[in-house]
Structure formats: C-alpha cells, structure tokens
Amino acid sequence: MTAISDRPQMLPEQFEEFARHLGRTVEGIRLEFINGKLGIKPVPDGDHGRIIQWLNRICIQARPELYVHDQGLKIQGYRGGFARPDGTLADADAFVGRGDWATTEDVLMVAAVTSFDSETDRRDRVEKPRAYAEASIPVYLLIDRDSAEVVVHSQPDGVRYESVRILPFGKAVHLPEPVGISLDTEPLKNWVR
Predict the structure, then answer these.
(1) For the residues 57-83, what does the mean pLDDT come to?
(2) Residues in contact with 187: Cβ distance below 8 Å, sequence separation at least 6, in sequence order
(3) Where are the domains of the chain?
(4) What is the mean pLDDT of residues 91-118?
(5) What is the CATH number of domain 44-191?
(6) In what order do the strands lie in the sheet with 72-75?
(7) Residue, of 121 and 152, whose pLDDT is higher
(8) Considering only CA atoms, which of 189, 188, 192, 193 is closest in space to residue 54?
(9) What's the whole-model pTM score?
(10) Residue 7, helix vs strand vs coil
C-alpha cells in the first residue's frame, strides 16, 4: 500500500508546464520537483552568489572549456524530477538551445550552496544527493555554510554516491574525474554567517 506522503503532488509534465508559466510571473523564487514533491526556495543571498562566482572562476582557470551554468535539469530518476542546482559544471556550450530544463548527459558536476532556510537539510543533504546519483551525475559538490564544510559526493552507482568526502573550510579539496579540479577552500570562510 502506498502512503499518501509517497504519492507525487503532480506529474513531471504538469510541473514543467507549471514552472514555465509561474517562472514568467513570479520573481524571487526558484522551483524544483524532486521525488514527486514541489519545492519552492527563495533566490540566494549575496554571499551565496559570491561562492558560486568563486567556484566558476576556479573552474574556468583550471579548465577554460567549462563553465558553471545556472541551468535547470531534468532528473530522470525515481518519479522523474526537475532540479535547479546552484551551479552545473559542463562544457560552455552544453546547454545552447536546450530551454529551461536540460537533460544531464553533459553534466560533469552539480554544486549546491546551503541556504539558511528550514528545507536545506532535507533538500541539499538528503534528496539531491540521491536524485543526482540516480541521474548518474559524476560529482555533487555541497558547500555547507551551516557546518563550514565541503562535501564531495562521487562515484554514483545509480542509487547513491559510493564515495563521500567531508572537509572543513580551509582545506584543499580535489574534485575527482571527470572534473579533475582542486579547490583552495580558505576563501569560503569569508562568506558564512
């Protein structure tokens, strides 16, 4: 028997249509649809944005062919879904002509920066690692401002990430292949509350 909480709130196709219309009329929110549940989160704060700028700069310097995109992704795992990572690392032209929601085959890494809201724990630490592993995204980078840690998820097996490394801000972090970039995380200490 399926519990009511396990039932999807809407079909993936309904979410895509809903997001297309709502996204044109309401500013200041981001929509996601993960594990059959609609998620609405506020637009990130200035420190959050600065962290994504920092990550993009490092990635471009290390691998000029790549870019950290602000791209919605179709997560074709359990129940289908749509996620808008804080950053999506892929070739600079990977999403040209793809629209609001792109498939994940060209994605090397997704990044999330925790927000200071009540949904962060469930969304960024539980649901997204599972959804991204199911979509076989090679690396999920979580920059956790609450704990001042960087969490690197890698080696997706289609259900979960087999490797999870947790390092405090200030340590050097190597993002495994296919990313192959090292991060000096000392500057992250400047962008936490």
Answers:
(1) 87
(2) 54
(3) 44-191
(4) 90
(5) 3.90.1570.10
(6) 37-42, 29-34, 81-83, 72-75, 101-102
(7) 152
(8) 188
(9) 0.77
(10) coil
